[in-house]
Amino acid sequence: MNGTEREPPERVTLVLGLVAGGTGAHVKMLATGLVAGGVGVSVAGPSSADRRFSFSAAPPVSFSAVEIADRPRLGDLAGILRLRKLLLRAAAGDASPGGYGDGHVVHAHGLRAGALTVLALVHAGAERRPGLVVTVHNASPGGGVAGGIYRVLERVVARGADLVLCVSPDLERRMRAAGARRVDRAVIAAPDAAPGPVAVHVATSAAPAAPAPAVPPVAAVPPVGTVPPMAGSPASDAPAPVAAGRPVVLAVGRLTEQKGFGVLLEAARAWRDLDPMPLVVIIGEGPLAAKLRARAAVLGVAVVFLGHCDDVPAWLRAAAVFVLPSRWEGQPLVLQEALRAGTPVVATLVGGVPCLAGEDAAVLVPWGDAGALAAAVRSVLTDPPLAARLRSAAAVRAATLPSEADAVSAALQAYASVRRGAGLR
Question: Into how many domains does the chain fold?
């Protein structure tokens, strides 16, 4: 870390906006780890984040609802004022005799949450303002109005944060160009791995799938890369039960445009000649669920949409290949989980993916190129030596990934390095 090192703070306020998946899980992990280390923790964010990640269900973490949306809205001013009141009250609670001490640090996650936090602390006064760290988790949506708003948020955060942490090199370059005084790499860790069985069963509804070719029955313990027949679900829940012995092409993520699942479905048409025909399994929920199901039916590809799943690591261990077709990613938790599981990976050459996967642990393809994605997945499915090399490289790479303890330790170092009262330049 750059700057003068100080003792860790007595209290940290974690601020987040409307989040799902990795960002929310990271904040929950930090809250848990900081409390275990003796730091007082409060969380401020939308009530929906508390419902999803149960911050308030784990005392001594305190949760305060501040409705920070994912785009500008009329309620932003009320949110800023409420956030200001919460943060200055927390700072006052950490005051040392004779004045405000350095015991309080604020850590905002995401550009929207970071910018609103900066604005909440404007004119707070050097003696009252807590140290402010902002982690940038996502890339710009591109051009147009949304891209313009993103650039404004970047400049607000760059001017107001004492330290900006970024999840990928491209975001670091953007924040430095925006004028951030200090930029460093964020440490994002997947949940610490726990061993479990390889065998998994489909337990939720399946989307309509193309007729499966006849395949031989599978033994009680399935080979790596296959799943056993569906068990425990009535026939009405699944139009086409999962066929024994079919290789699973697994994808995990929120069903949004960023994740590129439409490209994956297009690519899957190229595998229909394989025998046994691969089965695409997509784990996740989101606004594009109906659209993706309809597209899969039109394309005639074999796909199961599982929705939410609590045992992603088991599916990763059972998959023949894990596919990450995203338009952009930083340090995706699911990619870290795939590497730990030793699953062959095909991913897009975007954001922080190359740094995370390294040189040998994934086949990387351009984003949006269904043909390249299809060819890469086919290679893994039909070339056992390639799949074996990827599994071996994944295990080597996994040994270098940060643990939850590493992520908490890095956060504490960041907090210790920021000073109270930096304010806007």
Answer: 2
